[in-house]
Amino acid sequence: MLSAAEMFWLSTVRRDGRPHVTPLPAIWFEGTLHISVGRHEQKAKNLARDSRCALTTGTNQLRSGLDVVVEGTAVRITDRSRLLRLAALWRSKLDWHFEICDGAFRDPAGREGLVFRLTPAKVLAFGKAPFTQTRFRFPA
Fold first, then answer.
1. Whole-prediction pTM value?
2. Which of 32, 49, 56, 107 is the most exposed place for a label (fewest CB within 10 A)?
3. Rounded mean pLDDT of the chain?
4. 7-137 belongs to which homologous superfamily?
5. In sequence order, what are the beta bridge partners of 101?
6. Cα(61)–Cα(86) distance, rounded to whole angstroms?
7. What angle do CA 55, 56, 60 make, to 5 degrees?
8. Residue 119 above 70 pLDDT?
């Protein structure tokens, strides 16, 4: 499910404690989810202050599909070789083209995207028809 999903909802917390939720694509690679966020976006500011977050994906159907919530901590990736591999995955899966510059993605318009990995601490899976719930915990 996580490797096939394209769109997720990222939940972070603002400085004043209010939630911030936004849709974005994520890539599953080597046991972790990876996201890219604009350097000056609210979600980047939130993750810099508090790296705890959740990524959610699933369907908008009541009686079919699977919804998954991944809770964990986002860690910024700046390693050039890993960023190159991730950029290739973004290109093959989403047809998004990135160059690597200063430890981040850069798109053709010159916008910079900070890249984070979210290693799961807890995953909740909600099945529909039949309705089920499964929880997975990962060692810290």
1. 0.91
2. 49
3. 94
4. Electron Transport, Fmn-binding Protein; Chain A (2.30.110.10)
5. 104
6. 31
7. 160
8. yes
